Amino acid sequence: MDQELVRKYAEFVVRVGVNVQPRQTLIIRCPVEQAPIARICAQVGFEAGAKDVVVRYEDEKLTRIRYEQGAEADLTSHKPSALRAWLDYAEDPDGCCLLALRGADPQIFEGLDVEKVNRVALAGRLFMKPWQEYTMKDRIQWCIAALPCPAWAAKVFPELPPEEGVERLWEAIFKVCRVDPDTDPVENWKAHVEKLTRCANALNEYHLDRLHFTSGNGTDLWIGLAQDARWEAAQSRAENGAVFIANIPTEEVYTAPHRLRVEGKVYGTKPYVYNGQLIEGFWVEFKEGRVVSHGAAKNDDLLAQLLESDENACRIGEVALVPASSPVNRSGLLFYDTLFDENAACHIAFGDGYPGTVAGGNDMTPEQLLEKGVNASAVHEDVMIGAGDTDITGFTADGREIPIFRQGEWVLQ
Amino acid sequence: MDQELVRKYAEFVVRVGVNVQPRQTLIIRCPVEQAPIARICAQVGFEAGAKDVVVRYEDEKLTRIRYEQGAEADLTSHKPSALRAWLDYAEDPDGCCLLALRGADPQIFEGLDVEKVNRVALAGRLFMKPWQEYTMKDRIQWCIAALPCPAWAAKVFPELPPEEGVERLWEAIFKVCRVDPDTDPVENWKAHVEKLTRCANALNEYHLDRLHFTSGNGTDLWIGLAQDARWEAAQSRAENGAVFIANIPTEEVYTAPHRLRVEGKVYGTKPYVYNGQLIEGFWVEFKEGRVVSHGAAKNDDLLAQLLESDENACRIGEVALVPASSPVNRSGLLFYDTLFDENAACHIAFGDGYPGTVAGGNDMTPEQLLEKGVNASAVHEDVMIGAGDTDITGFTADGREIPIFRQGEWVLQ
Questions:
Q1: Residue of B265, B252, B229 lying closest to B394 (CA atoms)
Q2: What are the tens digits of pLDDT across the range A79-108?
Q3: Which CATH architecture group holds A3-176?
Q4: CB pairs under 8 A between A and B
Q5: Do B51 and A74 touch (CB under 8 A)?
């Protein structure tokens, strides 16, 4: 790949994405194969004033071996210090921020005992929940950005030889992330963030009560919104006041559905990668907020497990609006990674909601959030439901109709 | 490299080197570039009955960036959880063992502020001391083994292109570690361990009081031994009774000098890599156990810092006998890595002694060990003092002379 662009990308994710502040510790999660890029980000992090950079290398192939060989009781038992290590950084008076670099084989766990994998992964998420609240509640700055790996590139470009595939995937990532040789990604993102923020502000002014999604594939879905739901976009603000971009790329404007007020049927419009395996051609039907039936052309049983992860995994915690004209969708690529594919289409997330998507939510107790209708779960899994013919209409509590999307595009005034 | 031999090497280091026991957690420290080999070791570890395999990837290039960019106060401040994470494994009722795979650029820290690097490294060792006691006292099984990396290979084979150098270094490692296509390394090592153990046993029967080293380079060194010093070799036994080989390769028979009873002058016979930098052509002079003067053709100031690391870094904690005919020496290579080079020549270690090298030492308090004459320090740095013309004579307390080495070779009866 173009080393200049990689450096530009690293500068952008560290300085704008996670926006490391002076004296913070920058924590970088990074696939073990991508150490050279972690080091570039570390260098940039120090230049931006970090007091230290901690890199946590992750090895999905090792994880596969552990899932294959380890007993479930051992894989689900965690040492308290493994959580404490993360909390120590969060509680450091100088603060910390998290840059999660990822580039996974979309089918790394294919052929394994799916139920075991999911239970082990779920136990891991539950164990790490006190740390994850720092990101879910935007207490610290955090940013997820992608790095290509051969197995991922092979999935996106099955017709290309591995090295060429990786090269093409880098180009695609640069393109949809607005990183190019001739312009400044920082300026590009400033304009982009402003546009998304205008849409979110406009939606917030309507104080919508519910949304109605329809499209040609049969989707007919009513999503009631949480009380005091707030539309958010692109840029978030951490407790220390620093702004950050949690997902790169991001094209979405999103809010909290009401966990008890979702009705109707919706069809998935993109394959979905769950715990390393693909769910394709799925549909779900909601009644009073709960999924009451579902199906999938591929891995319906996996979808069932996702929905049964815990009591509230069958309810949705997020609804997000993305136009069909988004760069990710225009790339014509299926990335087999939610970070990208969710930015090609409107989506909903099974499971946990973001406290920040109701007014004052980041300061509320779990009970107060539930009261507002924000869902709570150990999972948060985005599935794509938007297409080029998606219409979305908003309704206020007094029945006023607001056209939001027509034929997959924003029509907000 | 030959994948079959790599697998054989991995089998050997996991099953014989660290000798993982059923239900233990196998902890693997591994350079980030060597993930494929860590995974092979993980697989073997599970096959040998490990309940889990934890891989801690280490990144010396990132460490260099941190040393360059971080402030000393930040680099020497450690979170308690970082130690706790290791102790949690040691205290697990099922136990743990440690396989440390390493392959470092011998000059990774060249050009950095040497004093800062050493102080930061020292603070790290002090912080980790409670964990390190598990290995220094053989409370758990542990094993250090090497993997080639391009920067290391370039140092050993400066005339070769990088890939060929790595290939040649693999071949050299396989050879000096007795791993070859036609024989079983497990059997090879059984015979080798038996031979070293016979030498150690023979030395133990003499209950020696002191050693006298001489060689043509001017070395004339008297090393008094600790009270109840015991000669050890090759194989160690952990608290759980499992035997292991702490260093692969190992050619040494070693014991505890008396920290107050070393006299005379000794010349280094191989360059020595300290914290990523080379000390070459050094000599030291002892009086009453302390180094009272020293010099080096290269990096004498680094040697000075090593000796001043703490109060007792200027005393020696180990003396080890290695014949000039050892495979490492016969390879004709300078490995620029103590793990190998110490097995080409007799050596002494500045700093900490091994409690297990005095009778009953692993159960003694620090005060009791000092009383026996075993040195205590945060450093343990082996430097090579043996050559093809080294003579070593032992003396019992009543003045009986025992020839041990003549012209660099064992002559014990």
A1: B229
A2: 999 999 999 999 999 999 999 999 989 889
A3: 3-Layer(aba) Sandwich (3.40)
A4: 95
A5: yes
